[in-house]
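quick one, 307 residues, struct below
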Amino acid sequence: MMAAKVNVIAEAAARPVSAAEAEPRVGLEQYYSEAGPDYAAWSREFNMHFGYYRMGANPLGREAMLERMNAEVLARLRVEGIGAPKLLDLGCGLGATLRSFARRMPQARLLGLTRVPWQVEQATALNQAAGCGERVRIIEGDYEDTILPRAGYDGVYALESSCHAHGADKAALLAEAHRLLRPGGRLVVADGFLTGRGFVNGLQRRVYRKLCECWVIEELARLDLFTARLEALGFTEIAVERLQLRVAPSVLHIPWVTVKFLVTDVLFGKGKMTKARWNNVLAPVLLPLVGAPLGPMGYCMVTATKR
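---
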């Protein structure tokens, strides 16, 4: 099964680079189409996020920490009492979190939304390889303005994808999440936020802007504006968990993964290193320079309930 997963991604890595590479800035669709296969170096299951460390766990077990993050998101959705919950992933990537949920909840109806056609194709193939193709569906669409039915979901979440939404409060994304949730439904957002502490100097601010450029982010959400927007939309039970220490053990894997990737895929690999792929290498290296405690960027999980 694992060989099938890797083959699905490896085929895409060999595709010719599009003409869009000549553009000065990499767009979201181009970034994830070209750099998407490289996430195999981070996670064999193609989890495109950081891990959640629990006391007593092995800090060297990166995949287990990544899977733990999936479980923590699911726990905060609070759907255990629902027979066949309907869950929506806003910015699902290659669908790893949805497949994780499918293993835990055989009756759940799971939908993932992405703007990237390549991810729809590859995630669907990965779902089939994992044996959950009938229970996990991936569709293309804009998570700030979907055609999905109002109040159609018991839980909606964005795991390290809300950063790509517009604005410092991510107003359009949160309004759409509110529209899609049924009354009493839960929203979970786990991502990097600007938490109120200012930049130390101009150099750190420039590093932050470069990080955003590499990851195709307009701007990270400001935590105070984000939670204020949730309240203005009518969400209740708004809670913020600061998870910097929880994700830190997985962040410490970045240097080793980066070196290994540079050796195996850059020095000895046959695929062309495009700007999008180089950005995917550079961004994690820049991250510690602007993350807490050195900078204003923190990792938080924000939860809320639709009234």
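The chain is about 40% helix and 20% strand.
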